[in-house]
Model the fold of this input.
Amino acid sequence: MTDLVIMKDRQAVTSSLQVAENFEKQHQHVLRDIDGLKEGVQNWTDLFYEDTYIHPQNKQEYRVIYMNRDGFTILAMGFTGKKALQFKLKYIEAFNQMEQHIKENQMQLPSDPMDILKLTFEAQENTNKKVKEVENRVSNLEENTVLSAGDYGYISRRINQRVTEVARGFGDITQEQRGKLHRDINSGVKAVTGVLTRTQLRQKHFKTVLEYINDWEPSTATKMQVRQMSLDLETA
Done:
């Protein structure tokens, strides 16, 4: 079941790659189906978010979309057949197991600031060494706390908004051209924060990422690729 559903940003999610593999579909077709939901699903960015991955064989960067339970449910509505039904049931079971696992872990870790403060007060009653250890632990927790679902969703929406703003400068572009812009801005987010994937972002990265998104412009190479694709379409 762990191959079907994974944990990212304290959420149970699956990816377009996993869906394509398990439902025996081409990945590009799964991406196309998800993109097709953008116009009909008002809260698309709350259900799906764009990312990239490095192909293990050719080391090239490609587009991938992660989705939570609701996003998967909407996407899988269009999958029919006996075999598809069996995989839907397996996904439901996998989501249930992962969400239970996440819930149990959240119960074990302090998330309320008052609980963290309580740890500090309790430590002050011990030796100076223990106080220092707890202070370091609290600081580390605050610095490395994963982004909340709300903050992560806000970053995803801002990325989509910024890409849309920049895309207007290229005129009417295709989804493939928009994908190049998404890969460019996502690569920049990873570069300025030092993370390998957007799902590794921490609370300490939030302000930096927003500043980067607001200032982002695609690289010269990306701009040239997008413009060339438009020229190719015109001459086709």
Residues 193 and 217 are 17 Å apart (CA to CA). The longest strand covers residues 48-54. The beta strands are 6-8, 11-15, 48-54, 61-67. The mean pLDDT is 80.
